[in-house]
């Protein structure tokens, strides 16, 4: 029998279709009601999405609060696109630090080189 590719199976929806996820999501949004990316830029924007920092398909723990972050729809879309296509996040926080943790400015080598040059 033909199954439409538009309708994901129950397995494809896991863990988002579980009671455990729904409770965890609600807890995350209670504890972190603002989008953390917008907040880093000095904007107070309500979060409506709970994102896995490390994607489940990349080995991230689905029910670990330490692997969750609250995001607005716009930031969640950008982050998901970045994860899917390997593109780094663009922009800086209010302190001028890159949002992309992999940016050379954030690297330990850069910090060590600055310490050496200041000695």
From TrEMBL:
UniProt GO MF annotations: endonuclease activity; nucleic acid binding; zinc ion binding
Domain annotation HNH nuclease: ranges: 23-77
UniProt KW Nuclease keyword: yes
Keywords, ordered alphabetically: Endonuclease, Hydrolase, Nuclease
UniProt xrefs under Gene3D superfamilies: 1.10.30.50
Protein name per the record: HNH endonuclease
Lineage: Bacteria, Pseudomonadati, Thermodesulfobacteriota, Desulfovibrionia, Desulfovibrionales
């Amino acid at each position: 029998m033909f199954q439409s590719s538009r309708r994901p199976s129950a397995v494809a929806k896991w863990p988002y279709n579980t009671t455990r996820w729904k409770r965890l999501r609600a807890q995350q949004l209670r504890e972190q009601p603002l989008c953390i990316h917008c907040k880093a830029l000095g904007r107070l924007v309500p979060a409506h999405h709970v994102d896995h920092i490390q994607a489940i398909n990349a080995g991230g723990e689905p029910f670990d609060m330490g692997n969750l972050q609250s995001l607005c729809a716009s930031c969640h879309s950008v982050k998901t696109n970045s994860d899917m296509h390997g593109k780094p996040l663009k922009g800086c926080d209010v302190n001028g630090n890159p949002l992309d943790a992999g940016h050379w400015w954030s690297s330990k080598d850069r910090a060590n080189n600055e310490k050496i040059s200041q000695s």
